[in-house]
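Hi,

Apologies if this is the wrong queue. I'm a grad student, and the batch job for Alpha-glucosidase from Treponema saccharophilum DSM 2985 produced an output file that my downstream script rejects. I'm not sure whether the problem is my script or the file. Here is the sequence I used:
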Amino acid sequence: MNIIPHMIKRYEFGQPVVDTGAVVMDVAPSIGEMPFGVVESRSPLKFKCGLSRGEMVFGLGENVRGINKRGFRYVSWCSDHACAGENDSSLYGAHNFLIISGSARTVGLFFDTPSRVEFDVGWTRGDELVVSCDEDGIDVYVITSEEKRKECALKDIVRQFRRMVGRSYIPPLWAFGFQQSRWGYKTEADVRAVVENYRSRSLPLDSVCLDIDYMEGFRDFTVSKERFPEFAALNKSLAEEGIHLVPIIDAGVKAEDGFGIYDEGRAGGFFCTTPGGDVFKAGVWPGLSAFTDFMREDARAWFGSKYKALVDCGVEGFWNDMNEPSLFYTDDGLKAAFRKIDDFRGRELDIDSFFDFTSVGGSMSCRLEDYRNMIHEVVGPDGSKKSVPHARIHNIYGAMMTRASGEGLSAILPGKRTLLYSRSSCIGAHRYGGIWMGDNCSKWGDIELEMRMLPSLNMCGFMYTGADIGGFGDSSSRDLVLRWLALGVFVPLMRNHSAWNTRMQECYAFDGGTEDFRSVLSLRYALIPYIYSEFVKACDSGDMMFRPLCFDYPEDEIARSIEDELIVGNEVLIAPVCRQNAGGRLVYLPEDMTQVVWKDCRASESHVGKGVHYIDVPEDTVVFFIKRGKSVPICGTIAQSTDKIDYGSLVRLGDDVPYSLYRDDGFTTDIDVAANTVELWA
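Support response: The file is valid. Your script probably expects a header line. Output copied below for reference.
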């Protein structure tokens, strides 16, 4: 990937409180004013630029609304925000990269700061982008392209940005298998029952994720001896069946004298403090907890080393949670809430006071006052150490936890890729792990929301990602899980996950049998060689694996308006069904393509011309399309886990042209795309 230095310019606005770690390329600061827009305020930065009629705005990673972000206000402030709706301005990530694209210009903007940023993208004024920062010290990167065609300019700017922030995390091959998760698998017997139910029905499966139930009192890096008495033996037994256990790790460490992790962290000074120098504590799952100061290199190394206790039991994958960080309460917050409740005692509540009263409980969580009282030790750009309130660097906390975990696992298992994904993130975390899209809900609209996030996250470097299939925070229906699986077939992180108080939604949990679930899951395993190949190649080149149609067909006015279809890799177009009781859907094809219908674990092909078509898609069927002049490899025999995939059974769908297949041992950290790519003619 060739980068032309003068196509990336960096503009400094004050001294950053800390290096976010997002940018790995050395870009010298530019002298003079930014090439477009108006800097209304330098400290803190407020930037404005006009938006012409028809210009589209892409990016901002994990966020609500459409792929085109025009018409709303987005706030980069990592938030524990379950079951978000389209009017929620903050989710779990802070991804401050966007591209403005129209007939007169295509330009990328990256706002590198650990602090809160607001993006008013044509919300207050329809013809204006306004970016407002809360804190001093931000670097703004402006990325342009010498490519003349809009398609090439969009992709070129993404590649330049991705090169600037470093190569994306690549998990092991087994991480592309299907994962079954639930907050509520409480015992070894529960886990074995899940595996038995999948295996006995020939439903492919590679992983079972463990939520907080496996721990001893919700304490990090512990395993309940009562519920999982032989944890290492369980891992070994499941590995023989091609199954990996993937336990959760939370950001908060139980603040309990005698708990070894807490005692060690306190003695080493590895936790965030109060302004007075005591260990900062807040309530989460185990009660009052301490929070590692991930801004410090020594604290990151200490926390990362603790994964060894579980790795020694045979674990090779983890998911990090609650790392915004989410705070249920602090002692100060509780006292303030009780004082407020006392103010209402004995009063007759009118409409205003009643709503004030009902909001008291929620007012304790993730308070800005508590973030201001949570103190980090940071090293400034000049090498000096200083104390900084968490509120000023909030958005990089989860990313630094991911970095600690990723670096720790690399040290524990050198030369071997491990699975790691996280809930909270900012740009920079993409080099150390993936993310799942947070605590979504069992809503049909959340399928479309995942589709809209995929290209936006890919732009920002997050390639290993996906939403909880079926939805986490509500009870799902059989058809919703099936339709969501049909999208998940193409998504790198394919996980079914739900909360303890919802309906069971495993692929065997519904009436009506499992033949349709088996067929959909079988397509995933037939496509894993292709998905893995496209994923690794995209990480290596800085390309997006998921793109809106307008990135490949920018002059096609119909394609520019479509957000419920995506290009996957270099060959495939997908158009999932996202409506309940729909037996099919309208699909727009920007060119002639091969239609593939997957049903009963078999593929059939037909030619379909450019234009709008109504496509029948029964619930037991997945339909996708292959571009003209392209082919896609699929396995002729279906494995039950990734370690059983038969590359010798690969056949090609689509046109009679070769496919460039990347393949490695599934674990190596020495990724060499050129040396491990072959032309597949089978």
